[in-house]
Structures are given as structure tokens and as C-alpha cells.
Amino acid sequence: MRALILLGLVGFAAQLVDGSLGMAYGVTSTTLLLAIGTNAAAASATVHLAEIGTTLVSGLSHWRFGNVDWKVVAKIGVPGAVGAFAGATFLSSLSTEVAAPVMSIILLVLGAYILVRFTALGLPRGNLGKPLRKRFLAPLGLLAGFVDSTGGGGWGPVGTPAILASGRLAPRKVIGSIDASEFLVAIAASIGFFVGLGSENINFSWVVVLLIGGVIAAPIAAWLVRHIPPRILGSSVGGIIVLTNARTLLRSDWIDASSSVQTVAYVIIAAIWAAAIAYSVREYRRDKANESVEGVESELRRKTGDTEEETASA
Fold it and tell me: What ranges does the record give for the region Disordered, renumbered to this chain (predicted)?
């Protein structure tokens, strides 16, 4: 019972992060399932089954708050579904001994990407309004869908930064569109896992608990996306993912590191993580202060202009 409650809280927290940041539900949930010894393919299958419900609710919630561009959803979602199905059948064919370290490596890379991306760069906001073309979105969707299935997560970490980097869509619409299109990816991946695994290796009680936690969090996250600082959240989540998957790799048969080596590695990762969060907080506060100064200067210029016009007319 305690494990189910924990999974429910993880589903809630993971969806809260995913709906606010446009990534990390699958990565966070799969990381936990791997940490407690779940088969790699079964972990990814469990998460994707839960995501059918969470992405549906999240997509509808983002749509209600005006965060979805349906043209982007169509252009990236269908290729994403194809890639997800291919990735699911590929992962299902790997042995457990090979699949777990492979998935941990993918998750570790994605976690590091999230950590570095949001700590160093935050969210790019230039070039808004320019169209996102199918020749860019289709290959991106295919790759992101494949990584999502084989890594137990990756649709958001691959798709969201790529679209944000283009600067052609408002950040909240990037997040909403990625969350909405993930519904197609989750369905395709789940079908792929059923084809490759069957249903006997999937714990459906875990699916339900993850789903309930995610569904509760989805509308809250869709509202928070307008207010939460993504830079700080990205640094925090990225660090958790890196630390957890580094632990899995260090304890795997591939590395089998001694306890002293593991301790040193954890201390180094924790120090980098703490520094990243501190830097993100500092940069966020500096950006807010600059915005306030710019706002005051703009207001002063406006008032000065109004005064000059009144003087001229007099």
C-alpha cells in the first residue's frame, strides 16, 4: 500500500513538472520504476499506459487555457506516434540485462540536457510568430517518439527544447502543444509494448495509481505554466534525474562501482546540482529585476511623451 501511495505522489509530481515544463513525466516516473527494480520494457510500458490518460487530460487543460497550437500538434504528433511504436517494439526485444543500463544511459543524457539547458539558457523567446514547417517537425517527432519509448521518456526533453530553440512559438504554446501531441505518442507506444511484451509483465495497479496522480495534477500544471519559473524547475528536475540514473548505472553489472567510488560520484553530482539551482535562482531574480527596471523606464518614457504632447498642444 505504501508503494502505491508513493507511486501516486510520483505521478502527481511528475505531471505537475511535465505540464509546467513540457517534459519529464516519463523520465521521472520511469527513473523511479527502474530504481525499485522494474524490468526496463515493463517500466516504459507502465508509464506510457498511464500517459494515455494524463496526456489526454493535460492536452485538454492546456487547450482550455489557450496553450495549444493544433497545427503543430498534427505535424509532430503523427510522426511521433510512428517513432514511438518502433521504439517500443525495439526495447521489447532487448534482454533485461541489456535494456536496464541502456535506458539508464538515455535517461541520464536527457536529465543532463534538461539540467544544462534550463540552467544555462532558460527559455529563448526570439523569432516569435514565424511558422514551424513540417520538414522540421516531422523528423523531430520521429526521433522524439523513438527516444521516448526506448528511454521511458524523452518526448518532452527532445521536442520541447528543439521547438523553443527555434523561437517561433510562445513558450506556453510549445509546452501545451507538446503535451497535447504526446497523447498520440502514448497510444502508439502502448500498442507497441503490447505487441512486444503482451500484458503479463505490466502491473496495471501501478498504471492506475500513476494515472490518478497525473490526472489530478494536469489541470493545475496547465494553470501554473503561466506563473512558475521554468528555469528553476528545469534545473531541479534535471538534477534529480541525473543523480538517480547515475546511481542505477554505477550499481549495474556494466560498471559495478565500489561504494567509495559511488559516494564520490554522488557528492560531485550533488554539488553540481546545488550550484545549478543557485545559479538558476540568481539569474531568474536578475531577469525579474531587469524586467521591472525596463517596465519603469517604459512608463517614464510614456509619461514624458504625454507631457511633451500636452506642452506642444498648449
Answer: 289-314
Domain ranges of the chain: 2-313
What single DSSP character describes residue 67? Answer: -
Residue range 98-150, pLDDT digits in tens: 666 776 787 788 778 878 877 887 655 554 455 667 788 899 889 888 888 87
Q: Rounded CA gap, 264 and 20, in Å?
A: 33
Q: How far is CA 95 from the centre of its chain?
A: 27
Q: In 3-state terms, what secondary structure has residue 272?
A: helix
Instruction: Return the C-alpha cell found at 291.
Output: 524586467
User: Is pTM, for the whole model, over 0.85?
Assistant: no
> Cell digits for 67?
496553450
Q: Please name the residues in contact with 23: beta carbons below 8 A apart, sequence gap of 6 or more.
A: 17, 114, 155, 156, 157, 159, 160, 178
CB atoms within 10 A of CB 77: 23
Contact by Cβ (8 Å): 88, 45: yes
User: CA 300 → CA 16, 288, 291, 305, 308, distances in Å?
Assistant: 39, 18, 14, 8, 12
